[in-house]
Structure formats: structure tokens, C-alpha cells
Amino acid sequence: MTGPGATLARPHVWRPGDATPPLLLLHGTGADEHALVPLGADLAPGAPLLSPRGTVLEGAMARFFRRLGEGVFDEEDLRVRTDELAAFVAAAAGEYGIEAGTLVAVGFSNGANIASSLLARHPDLLAGAVLIAAMVPYRDGLGEVDLAGKRVAIVNGDADPTIAPQQTTRLAGQLRGAGAQVSVLGHPGGHTVPDSRLAELRAVVAATDRTIPDRGKAHRP
């Protein structure tokens, strides 16, 4: 994959590892490439971690794409930034020896939303995703995309002031309509990563690893 973003110049963390699956960590607004590394290490101990920084600034806060207002995305910019991120991920995969199609995206808030966009626009990059505090990325849906065999967990809080329950329902429906295996893991908290769901998220990540072609054979007794 070539084009803007197809270099390793974007600030990022790369932490090699021997376990699987490798994780693509996508931070929320105002954080950086270091923010989700502890979570990634918790969800997949010993796995390789790739964590890029968003390249859009909202004031002094890093984001992965622009928004027009609270919960209102600049969808044109989202498409452009998604393609740039995909080019970076492809370049990083080649540089660091990440097997194509094995990455599991773990995104929080703004990072979760661009992870959904990656699934829609570049599904071959990812084996699945953990979407924490996630919204619907595109008003008109994900488009004609085949997500069969991909596992996705949506983790939204019942008390999240920025995400209405309908957002969770719509996103889950769009992903299922594209063929993904979707788990909706609600929690009573707000716009946060819930400790109460970490064990289930570890299980989702491990199950995603077993669905990767040829990888599953190694898990059979």
C-alpha cells in the first residue's frame, strides 16, 4: 500500500513480542501513542504492540481525524485519515514483520471510531477489533464490506454522556450486517475503559487469534 502515511515517520510505539495476536492500539482525544500500551499488555500479554499517534490537532489535543462538533464527525476527513493510517499500518507491518491480517485493533473513543472506519475501508488489515466508547463512524453505514470471520467487541458505558444507546445498537447492527461476530459488553460507567470487562476482553482477543486462517490449527489439540 502506497500513498500518504506509507512511511514510519508518524510517531508511534512498537513493542515486539512472541505471543499472538499483535495489537494495533488507537488512543482517544488528547492522549498519545503511549496511552494504551498498558491496556494492550494486559489484554494480550507478551504480544507485539503497535501504537501510533493521531496526526490531527484539536487545539493541543491529538486526534486521528477532525470533528465538526461534539459527536459530529468530519466524514471526509475521516476517510482521508483512515487511508493514511492504513498506509502507515501496512508500512509498519512490513518493517516489523507483522503477518498480514492478524492485527486486532484496540481503540478508545476517537481511536475506536477510526478503528471502525479501518474495518469498513481496509478490512484486510485487521482480524478484529475492541471498540471502547465507540460511535457510528459514518451516517450512511459502513458500505459494501465483508467482515465475515472478524470478531468485534463494543464496550460502551450506560452512563456515557456522549454516546446514546442508539449509537451502540446502530454500530452493532452495521457490523453484524457486514458479517462480523459482535459482542456488546455494556457497563454502568461512563466514557472510560471499564475494569469490570477486562477479563471478557482478554477472551475476545484470544478468540480472535483462533479465527485467523492457519493460526487456528496451531490451537487445536
UniProtKB/TrEMBL annotation:
Lipoprotein as a keyword of this entry, yes or no, is no
- List membrane-spanning regions: none
Which residue range or ranges hold the Serine hydrolase domain? 105-197
Name this polypeptide is given? Alpha/beta hydrolase
Gene3D superfamilies under this entry?
alpha/beta hydrolase
Q: Output the Pfam families linked to this UniProt entry.
A: FSH1
Molecular-function GO terms, alphabetical: hydrolase activity
Tell me which domain of life the UniProt entry assigns to the organism this sequence originates from.
Answer: Bacteria
- Does the keyword Hydrolase belong to this entry? yes
Swiss-Prot/TrEMBL keywords: Hydrolase
| InterPro entries from the UniProt entry | AB_hydrolase_fold, FSH-like_dom
> Which species does the entry assign this protein to?
Rhodococcus olei
What broad taxonomic lineage does this protein's source fall under?
Bacteria, Bacillati, Actinomycetota, Actinomycetes, Mycobacteriales
